Amino acid sequence: MNNxxxxxxxxxxxSVCGNDIAEYSIVFHSSAxxxxxxxxxxxxxxxxxxxxxxIYKISGINIPIIYDRYPLKTDREILIGGTNREYDESAxxxxxxxDYDIIVENGLVIINGxxxxxLYGIYSFIEKCLGVRFFTxxxxxxxxxxxxxxxxxxxxxxxxFEYRDICDWSIFDAEFSVKSKVNGxxxxxxxxxxxxxxxFAGGFKxxxxxxxxxxxxxxxxxDKPFLYAFDNNVRNPGGLCMSEEETLNVVVSxxxxxxxxEESPTLVSVSINDGEMAxxxxxxxxxxRKNGWNDTDILLDFVxxxxxxxxxxxxNVSVETISYHGVGAVPxxxxxxxxxxxxxxxxxxxxxxxxxxxxxxxxxxxxxxxxSYDFVCRLKNYxxxxxxIYVWDYPYNYNQINCAFPVFNTxxxxxxxxxxxxxxxxxxxxxxxxxxxSELKVYLLAKVLYNPFMSGQEYSVYMxxxxxxxxGAGWKSVKEYISFCESLSENYYxxxxxxxxxxxEKNSEEYIxxxxxxxxxxxxxxATAGEKRNVSKLLLQVEYYDxxxxxxxxxxxxxxxxxxxxxxxxxxxxxxxxxxxxxxxLENAFLPVVNNFRQSIKECSYWDAKCAAxxxxxxxxxxxxxxxxxxxxxxxxxxxxxFTYRTNNENDNGYLGAWNGEKIVDNDANPTWCDFKDxxxxxxxxxxxxxVDEFSAKTGIPLSDLRLNLxxxxxxxxxxxxxxxxxxxYLFVESPSKI
Length: 739
Fold this sequence. Notes:
alpha/beta
C-alpha cells in the first residue's frame, strides 16, 4: 500500500470571519437564462477557477462555483465580478481596466474590478488573505499557519500607471505577469482570459526605435532615398526626412498594417532609431530650424500628423514617441496632440533616486548628478503641457549585467516621483538571465509600479519575504550581502558602468572576501537544490567581478601560479554561467564560444562604437560575415587597403576575403584571438569600392540577409568577408586606408 502525500505545503484550515471555508461557494454573474448555458467574460470565469484552485491547494477543500442566476445557494458566498445579489455593493461601481475592490465583511467576500482588475483583486486576496507569495514564475510559497483566519478586510486599488511593463526574462511568462500586475504586452501575450494587455502594435519591432521598421531601408532606400535623413551630404537611413510628405504616407501605411494585425490595439510607436541616429538637414528641415524649431519640434510635428491620419481608422489608438538622445530636449514651439504619448527616457545616476540626485546637483553642484537633474527638469517641463507621459527607465547595468548593481534604495522613490509628476505609464528596460538580483528587482518593481505610494515599511516587508522565500534559511546573509554592496557603492554609478564604478577597486578586496563569506553561509543553509542554485548565481556575481577586474593584471604581472589559478577560475566561471543558462555578458552581446581561457572575460564583452566598422555576431551558430570597410574613392575603383583590427574569433576557417566586383578574392590571413589587447595591422588586396546595394545586386544575397543587415546602407568602401565567425564573436576595424 502506497502512502501518498499531497504535493505542496501541509494543509491549513481556512475560516472567514469565523466561518469554515467549506460552507462557501464562489458566485459570479451570468448573462444566461435558467434554460440556457451560463456565460460570463473569460477573465471572470478564470478568476473564479483561480481562487477555487488556491483554496483547494491550501485547505484540500474544493468549494463549488455557481452562477448568480441559479436559485440554489450555499450558506456563504465569495462574490466575483459584480453579481445580482442585493448585498453586492460592488455591482454598480464603474471600474477602469486595472482597478479592483476587495471587501470582506460579516463573512461575505466581494471581489470586483475592471477586466484585468478582477484577476489582480483575486491574486491580491490570495496573497493578502491566504498568505500565498508569487515570487517568480516557478517559486510560489505559502506563509504556513495551521489555521488561516480571514477577518474583516478591505483593499481598494486605483493604479496611477495605466501601462506597466518590465522587459526582463524573469517576467516574460504571461501567467506570472498577471500575478505581478504587469499589463504590458512586449515579449508576452496576455489573452482575453487575462483581461488583455496594454501594448504596442507591431510585435517585437513595434516597441520602440521604429523608424527603421516603418520605413525599412531594404525596401525603400534604393528607389526612394529622399525618405531618409540628409546628413553629412548623404541620405542616411539612420533617420527620416520628416518634412517629406511621402515619408508621412509610408509611416502611416506601415503603422496601419501593424494595427490591422492586432485584436484591440491601443498604442503604436513612431520613434527615432537607436545606435546610428541621423537627423535631416535638407532644405525643408533647415527652414524649420531657422524659425526656432529644434529636432524635437520637427519630430513632434511629424508625429502629430501621423496621429491625425491614424485616427481616421483607429480613433482610440495613441501614437507614442520618445524623448531620447537627439530629441531629448523639450520642444520650443510644437506641442504634442492630446493623444500623442511622450515616452521620456530617463538619464542619471542609479546610486540615488532621481529627485535626490537632482537636489544634489542643484544645491551642491555635484557634476555626476547633472544628468539626473536634466531628466527631472525635462519630465517636469513635459508635465506642464501634456497628460500623456510614459517613462522608459533603466535600473540595471547594461554594460556588465552579471555584476552587482544594487538599486533597491531607489525603486520606490523613483516610482513615486513618476506618479507625482503626471506619468501615466512606465516601461522598465531589464536584461536577460544574469547574475544580478534580477528576480528580486522584478518582484519589487512590479509592486511599486502598481502601488507607488506604499509605505517604506511595506516595501521592506516585500523585500524580506522574497529573500526568505527565494534563498531559504540563509536569507539574512543574502540581505546582509546586499546591504554590504550598497555600503561599498560610494560612487555615482550609471546604467552603463564598469564594475569598479559600482564597487570601487579600493574596496574590491573587502568586497570579494566578505561577499563570498556571506553568500557561502547562505548556500550552506539553503535546504533545497533550487535555493542552492539561486544563491550560486550570487556567488558567480562576486566571482565575475573578481575575474573581470583582475584577470588582465594577473596575466600581465602575476606569478605563474597565480596565472594558472586565474585561467582555471576563468574557465570555471564561464562554465558556471553556461550551467545556469546565463548566455549574455552585455545587454546586446552573447557569451561567445571560448576555447582558450587565457582570454579575459572582458574580451567576451568587447564593443567599440568608435571603430570604423564592426560586428558583434549575436547568433547561436557560426556564420559567414560581411563587413564594409569605409574608404574614400569612386565606385568601382580598385582599392588595396590596410587596417587594424581586434577580434576574439577562434574559428579555424575564419579566413578573410575582399569583393573584387565579380567574386571574393581570398586572403591567406585568418585573424584569431591570440592573447593580445591592442589592435593588429592587416592588409587586404584585390577589393573594389562598392556599396551594399551593388554588392547585393551582383551576388544575389538579399539586403535582408543576416550576413548583410549590419552593413550601413549609405556607406561605400571595400566589402570584406570573414569566412566563418564563432557564435558571439566580435570583429572591429580601425584606421582603414588605401595602400
